[in-house]
Each structure stands twice: as structure tokens, then as C-alpha cells.
Amino acid sequence: MQKATIWMGVTALFLALLAFWQGGLGRVAEGLLQGGKMLIQVLPLMLFAFASAGLISSQISEKTVSRWLGKEAGLKGIFLGALAGALVPGGPYVFFPLAATLLVSGAEIGVVFAFIAAKSLWTLSRMPMEVALIGPKIAFIRYLITFPLPILIGIAANAFFSGFTEKIRAEIKKLQGTKKA
Prior knowledge:
It contains nine helices and no strands. α1 (3-59) crosses α4, α3 crosses α8 and α5 (109-122) packs antiparallel against α8 (149-161). It has 181 residues and is an all-alpha fold. It has helices at residues 3-59, 62-69, 75-87, 92-104, 109-122, 127-134, 136-146, 149-161, 165-176. The model has no long low-confidence stretch (mean pLDDT 88).
């Protein structure tokens, strides 16, 4: 069993005991029912996200990913990773499997960091809502201030963590159950 699965199981057990202590079996059942409802809501999205990540992985060769997003791509790869992060729709169930797929397929660690940071900071699909809720001026200032951050984060990740890329790749492959770890 994976360490993360064991950790989540222990956490769930602790929370169930806490709920029981606070309100008996009724509180435990209420919590499990709420969790089940959330699972039913996100399950289709998770299935499509993981299917998309797997299909992307099977369609794009490691050589192509390495050339465009790997160590040899340098700063260009970080820019492309950040751009992809800004353009990818959906929440964490979508972009984390894609980030893992990019890394396993040969992307450098800084590209993946830039991808995740840009997804969090630059998501273009969120821009209309931001403009509507906080106004165009504040939205523009926010985008302007955060613009260099994904690139800087990608550069910093390459500088500080590139030595861990292969170990992280192997861990992701182990989690995914692929044989080429």
C-alpha cells in the first residue's frame, strides 16, 4: 500500500473517531454521507482528467517532451510550461495529473513548477470572473504583478531541485504503477 493511502486512511480514521466522540454514530454517518456526495460529484471529472493525462502520455513521445520541455529546452521550456498552465481549464483534478504526466514524459522540474504556478496565478478562464467581481483595474494589476512569478518559480525550481527530477519521476511512476520506474 502506498504511504499516501495509509496516511489518508489514518487521517480518515482519526476524523471518524473525533466525529464519534463529538456526536456519536449520527455525526460519523453525516460526514461519510457528505464525503460520498463529493465523491459522486468529482468522480466523472477525475475519470476524464486521468484518462486525458494517460492519453496525452501515450500520444506524445518522451523525445518530443524532452526537446520542448526538458532540460535542453531551458528557458523556452519554462515559458511553454507557464503558457500551458495559463491555458489548461479545470481544477486540481485536471492539472495535477497533467503535471505528473509532463514530468514522467521528460519535462524538467522547473517546467512543471511553472505550469502549476501559472495555473494558479494566470488562469485565463478565470479572468472574466475576476474582472466582473473586482473590476478591470485591480484584475489588471493582479495579473501584472503576478506575471513574472511562474517564470521565476520555474527558474528557481531548476536551480534548486533539478537534481531531484529523476527521483521524483521514479516516485510518480511507482505511484502510477508503471513498470519503467
